[in-house]
Structure formats: structure tokens, C-alpha cells
Specification:
3-stranded antiparallel β-sheet; 34% helix
Length: 105
């Protein structure tokens, strides 16, 4: 629930709401997040949702592509691979495929 008189800012509240939906799988990997849609749904401005998406980008939960929107990086169903730190020093077994999701560290 989004409340305007809370100690937590509106963008933080929206980010927490979207993060919960991502982690629960409600918003699955690859899903586009349209600020206007979620703004209307949550009763806030599209700018507030955009600020929330910037917070989620910092937490590596979404990817923001200029002129294309924001997309969920984590969640279910998972389609693709995300490299882990486990074998970063090991040489790659084969060529990278375009379906691989890269995450900046």
C-alpha cells in the first residue's frame, strides 16, 4: 500500500512494492515495466515509478534501456542464464549466446 504521509518516500515505497512482485515471480524475468501503467495502478505519478525503477536498477533487479523501457532481470520463470562469480577465473567453455543475460557488477 502506498501512503503519502509515510517516513519512506513514494519512490522507495513503489520500489519495495515492485521488488516484492519481482521476488514472488508475479513480475517475471523479461517483463517490461511501463511507468504509466504502474503509476495508474499504484496511484502515483509516472515520474515516481521511474525514480523507483532507478532504485531497482541499482539493486540489479531491473535493466533500464534508453527509449525502450525497464525490464525485470530476476524472477520466475527464468529463461536464460546469469553468470555467477563461481568460475569467473575459469576460461569460457564456448561462445556467448545472445540469450545470455549480462549483469554489471
Amino acid at each position: 500500500m502506498i501512503t503519502r504521509n509515510a517516513i519512506v518516500t513514494l519512490p522507495q515505497q513503489v520500489a519495495l512494492n515492485l521488488e516484492a512482485q519481482i521476488r514472488s515471480g508475479e513480475l517475471h524475468q523479461g517483463r517490461q515495466i511501463r511507468p504509466r501503467y504502474f503509476a495508474e495502478l499504484l496511484g502515483v505519478s509516472p515520474r515516481t515509478v521511474s525514480r523507483a525503477l532507478t532504485l531497482l536498477k541499482r539493486r540489479k533487479l531491473v535493466s533500464i534501456r534508453p527509449d525502450r523501457g525497464a525490464y525485470v532481470l530476476l524472477g520466475e520463470p527464468f529463461s536464460g542464464t546469469i553468470p555467477t562469480d563461481k568460475n569467473d577465473d575459469a576460461p569460457e567453455a564456448g561462445p556467448r549466446h545472445s540469450s545470455t543475460v549480462s549483469v554489471r557488477r
